[in-house]
Each structure stands twice: as structure tokens, then as C-alpha cells.
């Protein structure tokens, strides 16, 4: 799941990426905004979700995926859209525009 927080006085958006714990031992976020380097997500034991927050410029579009247990790629079911990648699969799309 993706949560977006828009700031009135800043040209950036705080984005929280979340994924339910389930049987997952570790999960990372890989995206074009982090050069597709797998950024580990932290487990919130209270909500039983993994999450990571990033701040990104407004009015941009980004591609991302989740890497689960270091081997399984997943898209976000709440993404703003999907686009084919070079590996025959889809990437999730995140839009930081106020209106999507």
C-alpha cells in the first residue's frame, strides 16, 4: 500500500510504502528514484507491516517494485498504474502529482 502526504509549503511529497508481514522474512523497495538498489523496509510490530518512507519531488512519476525474501518481485496492488519493464513483467507506477 502507498500513503502520500502532500506539503503545502514544500515541493515534495512524503510517501510511505507498506507491505503486510505474512510469512515474509525481509522485504526491500527498489525504484528508479533509488537507482534500483534494494532499500530494506522495517517491520512495524504494532501494525504488522513492513514500511519505508521517502520524500520525492512533486509532479513526477516513478517506477518501483518490492523484493521479497531476496528472490520474489512483487508490484503494489494500490499503485497508481503499471508499466511493462525489460524483463517481461510490470513495474508499479507512483505519481507524486496532486491529482492522479
From TrEMBL:
InterPro entries: AMPK1_CBM, Ig-like_fold, Ig_E-set. SUPFAM superfamilies: E set domains. It comes from the Bacteria. Residues 13-94 form the AMP-activated protein kinase glycogen-binding domain. This is 1,4-alpha-glucan branching protein. It comes from Photobacterium lipolyticum.
Amino acid at each position: 500500500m502507498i500513503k502520500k502526504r502532500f506539503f503545502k509549503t514544500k515541493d515534495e511529497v512524503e510517501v510511505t510504502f507498506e507491505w503486510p508481514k505474512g510469512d515474509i522474512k525481509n522485504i526491500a523497495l527498489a525504484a528508479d528514484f533509488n537507482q534500483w538498489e534494494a532499500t530494506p523496509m522495517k517491520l512495524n510490530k504494532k501494525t504488522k507491516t513492513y514500511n519505508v518512507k521517502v520524500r520525492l519531488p512533486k509532479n513526477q512519476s516513478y517506477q518501483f517494485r518490492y523484493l521479497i525474501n531476496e528472490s520474489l518481485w512483487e508490484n503494489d496492488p494500490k499503485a497508481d498504474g503499471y508499466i511493462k519493464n525489460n524483463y517481461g513483467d510490470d513495474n508499479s507506477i507512483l505519481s507524486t502529482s496532486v491529482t492522479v
